[in-house]
Specification:
The chain is an alpha/beta fold. The chain has one domain (about 1-209): Rossmann fold (3-Layer(aba) Sandwich). About 25% of the residues lie in helices and about 30% in strands. The protein is built from 5 helices and 10 strands; from the N terminus they run E-E-E-H-E-E-E-H-H-H-E-H-E-E-E. Strands 6-7-8-3-9-10 form a 6-stranded mixed beta sheet, with helices on both faces. Strands 2-1-4-5 form a 4-stranded antiparallel beta sheet, covered by helices on one side. The longest helix has 14 residues, at about 135-145. The structure holds adenosine-5'-triphosphate.
Length: about 210
């Protein structure tokens, strides 16, 4: 998988959040996106996920030597982010079965095994609306980690997780990144220890470290 970003810029109202950004993201080269609160990390991630349009510039997606249109890229990506919604009325079991209608899990993982892997067996029949914020975060991360997609996008991945949850995150992240293009928006180094490349956003400019 490759994502090529050319002359990317985004403004809200009259303010440029960032401008003139060029880079290429590749599978097996996980990248952290860092920067102060409000610097534009989530905005950049949402443009790459084709959730938000860019104001100028282009994002090009290539998978197995074929161009993927922007309106099809959702099929190729998994995203875990604070602004991503879960279906609150569904139980955990129903949420997983619903998800599997659109995106299968890696290595043919079954729904029951998935629920064990995210450590929520006791909540199998509980509605998601009654989950704690940490339980919701485990579900979001699990769906992203274990879905069979070549792109994995994470925004503030350990928010609401306790120490056990952070250990769980680090373990499953490293187990599920092979052959995937991984981008992590974060200011917590323990969330992006696997990333050798860091992109830092400051004062509307994006620096590659
Ligand atoms: N829909 C919107 N309308 C107007 N301004 C917006 C909108 N969405 C984001 N912004 C502004 O864009 C800037 C970047 O926001 P963004 O959420 O991308 O930052 P961030 O680096 O992810 O922040 P944080 O670390 O707090 O999550 C902020 O100044 C924010 O107020």
């Amino acid at each position: 998988m490759q994502i090529q970003v050319e002359n990317l810029g985004r403004k809200f109202n009259k303010d440029w959040i960032f401008r003139n950004f060029d880079t290429t993201f590749q599978s097996n080269q996980p990248v952290a996106i860092t920067g102060a609160n409000g610097s534009g990390k989530s905005t950049l991630l949402q443009i790459i996920a084709a959730i938000l349009p860019a104001t100028e510039g282009k994002v090009k997606y290539t998978y197995r030597q074929k161009n993927i249109e922007e309106d099809k890229i959702f099929r190729y990506l998994s995203l875990a982010a604070p602004y991503q919604e879960l279906i609150e009325e569904f139980t955990l079991q129903e949420s997983v079965v619903f998800h599997l209608q659109f995106k299968p899990f890696r290595n043919q993982l079954a729904a029951g095994e998935f629920i064990k892997k995210i450590g929520l067996e006791k909540a199998r029949n509980k509605p998601v609306k009654n989950f704690s914020s940490g339980m919701k975060q485990r579900l979001k991360l699990g769906l992203a980690f274990f879905s069979d997609t070549p792109i994995l996008l994470l925004d503030e991945p350990t928010s609401n997780l306790d120490k056990n949850g952070v250990d769980w995150y680090q373990q499953h992240l490293s187990d599920n990144i092979a052959d995937r293009l991984v981008l992590i928006c974060s200011n917590q180094p323990y969330e992006y220890e696997i990333c050798k490349r860091i992109i830092h956003i400051q004062d509307s400019l994006i620096y590659i470290r």
